[in-house]
Amino acid sequence: MTITVLMGNGVSIADNPDLNVTSLSTRLADEFAKLGGDQANEVLAHLANAINPEDEPSGFESILGPLDLMATALAAIAPLPAMFGTDQTEIVNQIEASSGFLRTVYTRGVAITLRAIDKESISTSTLDKSVTTRFVEAVKALDRSSSVTIATLNYDSLLLQGVLDDSSNVSDLAAGYAKSSSSITDEALVDCWAIRGVDNLPPSPIVVIQLHGSLGWLNSPEGRVYKFRLGDLRAVEYWERLEQGRTLWTPAVVLTSQAGKVRLVAEHPFSLAYEAFLGRLRASDIWIICGYGFGDQILNRRLGEIFRSSAKVRRVLVITYGEHPSESTVYKALGDPEDQSNDIVICRDGLPAGLSCEHWDLFS
Fold first, then answer.
1. Which residues contact 216 (CB under 8 A, 6 or more apart)?
2. Is 285 helix (H, G, I), strand (E, B) or coil?
3. What pLDDT score was predicted for residue 4?
4. What's the first-to-final CA gap in the chain, in angstroms?
5. N or C: less crowded end of the chain, CB within 10 Å?
6. What was the pLDDT predicted at 125?
7. HEC profile for 35-67?
């Protein structure tokens, strides 16, 4: 029996409710209002509506995504004036300046958001073990004879806190053999590990795949991606420096709109993360999808393609809390919305209650 897990924001919320998207988005909007005045968020809302009027607001990605898209689009058209055969240096300079300004605002927003996530990602649970840790242990207990893959959409550190009690039993996309040191600020050198270029993860009881990056993943000025220890980033006040424009190292995360995600997940390191995850998902007998609201169109399409096309018999356990996502949303993502498949079981008890419910027992 092989198991692959997909974790969404709901798992982190079970440990700390302040990690919910609404709370984080409110913080971002408040910070932008402090920086740009009361009308700053109105302008950003108009921008979002102008780019895609059919998009439903979806938290901080709705704020940051349009900035990312506009900065990217302006950079792409910068060569255009020269193609019309006249001296358009001033126009090109204006386009590049506008793109750079929007990229700066975007990066500042990313810094604000990630700093808030880092602050809240230390579990405030009064229990001996966090909910995330208990979830990981329960998943592993389903089958101790083979490796378990846990893919996460979350940027926070709760999953790594939950699995790193015995780091020899865990592997991730950072290459342990590729340790180096880098100066991400004007401070001393900081240890880091290069993100792999191919899916050559060593066999281990738990494989962690961070699909959309992590608080500890940074892009170097030369374009390579490295993993850093969060304690080291906190020590040099990385996110504060990023917000102030005092470092050239930028977060390697997919903090953008759906359209922006299409571009980013096709690029390293996210393309590698998806390749590693989907390959293991395709080979798994059991899928456990926990805390994911099925709102990511790109990911839903990949999940559905594998679930519908494979002849492999598999079972899926979806753990959520409350009425959302609806059954039709889940079935539509994984298969025919009219096919109320017995292979898909939905538990609405959330975590940690879902670990001892009748639905969990079906997979034990």
1. 157, 227, 228, 229, 230, 233
2. coil
3. 95
4. 11
5. C
6. 47
7. HHCCCHHHHHHHHHHHHCCCCCCCCHHHHHHHH
Mutual angle of helices 297-309 and 270-283, in 10-degree steps? 30
**Matching residue, tokens 């940051």:** 64
Report cis status (omega within 30 of 0) of the bond before 325. yes
Q: Torsion angle of alpha carbons 267, 209, 335, 329, nearest 10°? A: -90
- Residue ranges of the chain with pLDDT lower than 70? 56-57, 85-87, 123-128, 164-168, 311, 313, 336-342
**Within 13 A of 191's CA, how many CA atoms are on the CB side?**
10
pLDDT in tens, 110-152: 999 999 999 998 755 445 678 998 999 899 888 877 889 999 9
Alpha carbons 78 and 93: distance in angstroms, whole number:
8
CA 213: distance to chain centroid? 5
Specify whether the CB–CB gap between 198 and 272 falls below 8 A: yes
For residue 211, give the nearest of 258, 137, 264, 132 by alpha carbon.
264
Sequence-distant (≥ 6) Cβ neighbours of residue 187 within 8 angstroms: 236
| pLDDT, tens digit (0-9, with 9 covering 90-100), for 57-113 | 678 998 999 999 999 999 999 888 888 766 678 888 999 999 999 999 999 999 999
Domains of the chain: 3-15+128-179+197-219+250-362 (3.40.50), 18-120 (no CATH)
